[in-house]
Amino acid sequence: MVKKIVRDPMFLKQKSEAATEADMQVVENLLDTLMENRDRCVGMAANMIGERKRIIVVAAGPFLFPMINPVITKKSGKYETEESCLSLNGARPCTRYKQIEVDYLDRDFKPQHGKYTDFTAQIIQHEIDHFEGILI
User: Fold this and answer.
1) Which of its termini does the chain have fewer beta carbons within 10 Å around, N or C?
2) pLDDT in tens, 17-53
3) CA 43 to each of CA 5, 37, 66, 71: distance values in angstroms, whole numbers, following the listed order
4) CATH code for 9-131?
5) Contacts with 97 (C-beta within 8 Å, 6 or more apart), sequence order
6) Which of 83, 70, 67, 84 shows the shortest CA–CA distance to 31?
């Protein structure tokens, strides 16, 4: 189900909690909402649709994939950039890393480990920041 995008900074600044298998509907709602906003969005965190859960969805080319309880385990290639967010107005400066490694659960709640670079890595970092209430 496509959900409304949360734009309330007080809500967005709250930390998210670990997701469980009971949160599968959140994964589906995030995927649907990202698809609906693909013309202006490449990733979403659950708090953007009103759920304080550690779930993100990422668009990598034509593919959308969820990451449940993702944790960045390695990062390298620090750089400065500017990003925008569907939940906020305008672009803001931030620090990112060119290469990251992430441990997460897939949509079947199976453990995964992925290596990501460049723009996909940047999207993942941005969305994981949402879990900590970090607004760019």
Assistant:
1) N
2) 999 999 999 999 999 999 999 999 999 999 999 999 9
3) 12, 9, 10, 16
4) 3.90.45.10
5) 75, 76, 77, 78, 79, 121, 125
6) 67
Please name the amino acid found at residue 82: E
Active site residue 127: yes
User: Which 8-state DSSP code applies to residue 5?
Assistant: P
Residue 68 has pLDDT above 90, yes or no: yes
Count Cβ atoms within 10 A of the Cβ of residue 94 and give its class: 0-12 exposed, 13-18 middle, 19 or more buried.
middle
Domain residue ranges in the chain? 9-131
Q: Using an 8 Å Cβ cutoff, are 127 and 48 in contact?
A: no
- Among candidate residues 21, 101, 127, 132, the one labeled active-site is 127
